[in-house]
Amino acid sequence: MSDIRFRFATTLVTSKVANPANTSQEVRFDVTLPNEAFISDFQMEIGGKIYPGEVNEKVAAQKKYDAAKKKGQSAGQVKQKPRNTNRFSVEVNVGAQEKVVFNLTYQELLKRKRGSYEHVIYINPKQIVADFQIHVSIEESRELTEVRVPPIRNELEQKLEIKAGNTLAVVSRPTSKSARISYSPSEADQRQNSERGISGLFIVEYDIDRKTNAGDVMVVDGYFVHFFAPSDMEEIPKDVLLILDVSGSMYGTKLKQMKDAVLGILSDLHEGDRFNILKFSSSLSFYKESSVTANTKTVKEAKRYVKNMVATGGTNINSALLDGSNFLNKAENFRERAQVIFFLTDGQPSSGETNLNKILENVRIANSNAFPIYSLAFGQGADYNFIKKVAIQNNGLSRKIYEDSDATLQIKGFYDEVSAAVLKDVSFKYLNNASSVQNLTKISFHSYLLGSEIVVAGKIENKDVKVLDLSVEGLGSQGTVELSLSADLDDNSFPELTKPGDYVKITEKIWAYLTIKQLLEKSVGETDPTVKEDIKKQALELSLKYKFVTPLTSMVVVKPEKKETSSVDEEDDVADSKPPNPLPVKPPTQGGSLPLSFNRGPPGTSYGGGAGGDPHFMIRIRGMEYPLCFDLHANPGDVLRILANKESGIFINAGIVPSFKFDAHHRMKTFMGEIVILFKSHVMKVTPTKIVFDGAELFWGDENPYFLKDVTVEVVTIKRCRVLRLDFGNSVQVAIKRTIAYGNMTVDYLNVYIENEAGLSENSSGILGQFLHRHVTVHQRGTNRKNQIVGDILIEEAGMPTKHVRSFLKEKPDEVTGNLELCWNAHNGITKTAESVQHFFVDDIMEIKCSFGQGADYNFIKKVAIQNNGLSRKIYEDSDATLQIKGFYDEVSAAVLKDVSFKYLKQGLGSQGTVELSLSADLDDNSFPELTKPGDYVKITGKIWAYLTIKQLLEKSVGETDPTVKEDIKKQALELSLKYKFVTPLTSMVVVKPEKNETSSVDEEDDAVADSKPPPQGGSLPLSYNRGPPGTSYGGGAGGDPHFMIRIRGMEYPLCFDLHANPGDVLRILADQESGIFINAGIVPSFKFDTHHRMKTFMGEIVILFKSHVMKVTPTKIVFDGAELFWGDENPYFLNDVTVEVVTIKRCRVLRIDFGNDVQIAIKRTIAYGNMAVDYLNVYIENEAGLSENSSGMLGQFLHRHVTVHQRGTNRKNQIVGDILIEEAGMPTKHVRSYLKEKPDEVTGNLELCWNAHNGITKTAKSVQHFFVDDIMEM
């Protein structure tokens, strides 16, 4: 629900959360807001009571929220997410068995752009909503000239000429100055949009009646707001300079989109405007030496110049902005014209002056006439903070341009907003009452732009003032313009629709809103640290006073404990209370850097070290000013021994994963993708997606410490990255930093750092551990040719000759904080002090194996027990494993009878000899307990009999080895399960809602019958379209390890085969030049081994090249032409040439891609669980009709081969054997032996029979290497 009054919009978002569990749980929301909005209120309603939120400075709010969470209380916190300014993170800690309603209110002053105000509400319920309603009310000071609701759309820019309306929105007009908009789509309306309901932007556009005067003034309680937007004024002739980045990073789509936008800009120039173009890369050049007057001929010639621009070289931003400013400084009659410097770049300075502060200073000096520089940051590679500073320091505006199909419209739209000035050098003067007017917001503006609005606010201190006289002055197209107004302060003519009390403090709120906005903007452009801090302090004070959530504040609301009678208002009330955990709680570290190690021990030995990406190492040595750093080349799938110390029982191993990027020596860059820590009997596995301690999953998003047995674990934020801190309680602390891929990075990875090594012995080994028993010193030796300081590192070790290693001082990043610091860089020389560099590599990431837990084959253990009259138990790797083992022993070890038989007459053998117990039961005795009526017991004994019989049959089938007998036992169990309506491992229960034709199923985990096929969960992918001649493929998939399944026309069962690939390999899945589609898959290690001792591998990255587009897919992100999509999205993306949609199939997310040319691809993501060690991807061709017969690659090859199968009887294992014939033009017929085997479909996961041909299929090519490529980006 939104309430708009005098352009000031207040919107309420409501969400309900229920927690059925017995422990408190945290739920996180991402609430999407307009860029300009401030959150002003946050409340939680619990048990009918409302608990209001407080706005605190960020650190204070975080402490209060953390303290409440530790007490298990319901708590919510709202704070800005720094990476995306139009989304706010809402964290709600819901108490056990509680229902919480949280209400979030945000406010914004609507901006007038292109002639109207626009109010946006973001919709994304992710489901069909029974009572879907949006209500917007508008109250204005003047008559509304237009109220419009366009169709729901996504965030992509739309062309202005599209004037369609939302047919489901109802607009009513109670008065000429007010409007009501209601939007209530039915369930059918929502379903027509998608099965997940309506998602997108609900927009209301409106404008008011305008005249050529000084505007409107609204006064309430001494605060006034002045709205200025005159009409019927002509544009000032303008000088336009387009400063355009044509560096190498602009190559491809971005350059084309920029050209298209510039062509549109040139078309819009008026007769009499002057223009020029400055293109820059490493060098720069002007289109013409002087400004060009716009006319049909000159614009046409300029367009030809733009079309011929090419991208190459580096990025010299400094020279471009300096030369551009100097060019306009020399222009004739520039004071009578409006100036537009339109600056666009997609990167950071890499040529010429690269120091950002120096560039800002240079531009400020060069732009002596204060021309506005309107700046655009195009794509992820651009430094938007720097671009924003350029604009703010030079009277301009800035905009982030997203790499998407609408980038041309984004660029052109921004130009349209800023290029049409009707007044310049605008100033607001509050005349005879000037001494009474205080706390004014900004009153001087470089220009007033056509279709926009200027808003000024202030406070009238003198209550005796009855009339506010004001004037607005500026330079227009015909010369000086002065507009004046006298505002009657006693005129309280509010709109009739609401009572006057509703408007109390609305002007004060607008004043505070504007003041904070302008202070925050001013702080961005300020270079003096003292002044900057003072500005931010003023903004913080106002944010706290008016309860706005801004970049400086957070809002927290806490439900008091039951024993408390009042709400928690002061920080100490929360901070001083004791948490339920009896152990002391260490407060989470916010920001900052990691502390140095404790620095004990003799000089020359290490006191801390870290290992980072690629991988490189940094070791801190006592007595050395700078740390020691070196690199070690490792291949994908390698396992590095980071630390081994038997005395403390700590072992740290790191698994290496590929990046599919190459260094200058053409070697693939590698990173640490998994770290395993073995400590005493504990096992901790850490990947960028999860943390598992003794089988229990912890979370990277957690804010509070875990006090586990022997180990304290805490996750903190350091420089925007999450860092896992481990304290082993024996003077050893380790930190593991997670880095999520961004920009050109292709893989998430980990860094590890030893914070405190005091508890480690001198017998430690491993890449970091070795330095605990080595003595290292450095002697400076002058400088080298590159003017780097050179040093001679001496490494001494008992029983070994002294090692001399040449090194030089170089800046490298600290492995955890990321801060650049000088270190003695020694290349690979350090590692060679060991007998062999291989000393640091181990075969298995698990140095210590457990006899219980995830590594044990429970189905096998169960069979052993059943076949030998015993019982079995799964022991979970957790802190209570000792009790689990001892408890199971206590259950089975105390026999009081053996050889017990029930004969319904006779005997058994006890400790004193034979024991015989007898009973005579009266079958007519129906004395049921009085608690319930006898009818409740009808058939209860029959149910118990059926329950026991099914359980025992299922157990018996597990231990049975004869397949025929086993199947007969399972058949008996199935018949009883169906008769008595039990959901067992052999059955499922389905509930159907007839009118909707929807079904849901509940399955029991198949724990007892390992060989039974699990029933399908959810939907499955449709088969391909099945066009083409018999014997050719009509769909195929590639899955983990990796194995392939191809569906052949005319064959009842698909063809399946395996292909061994090593970590770091790149497989060519599909290549088709005619359709322009190429699919490559990068192979990642699992650190698990098969029966042949080869590491199992999976597809960890898939790259799809289509025409000029590039899509990169990993288990953590999806990137299309540089724009990031999300695995969690529910609605399709309609991108340029491609439609992308993420759906859920059998609890896994599947990315579906439609290329619009009768080709559809599906990519399934599997998140590691149980014994799995790596997240991975599967790929499947759903429709290949648009692919040509010239296709190649693992899946593409079958489009031009003819495949048939001839059944040949059975083999020794009673498997049906077949002879596969593969025919290809110009090649001899290939015969491949195969047999029918159940394998999982690569996307749905359903087990199905297929003709398994091992590696024989791949050998039909000239060489198996035909399916491998060198680079994942290869076409």
Automatic annotation (TrEMBL):
Superkingdom, taxonomy of origin: Eukaryota
Domain VIT: 1-108
One GO BP: hyaluronan metabolic process
Entry GO MF terms: serine-type endopeptidase inhibitor activity
Region of interest (Disordered), residue spans: 560-609, 995-1036
Domain VWFA: 239-418
Compartmental location: Secreted
Keyword presence, Repeat: no
Family: Belongs to the ITIH family.
Protein name as catalogued: Inter-alpha-trypsin inhibitor heavy chain H3
Organism (species): Magallana gigas
Lineage, uppermost ranks: Eukaryota, Metazoa, Spiralia, Lophotrochozoa, Mollusca
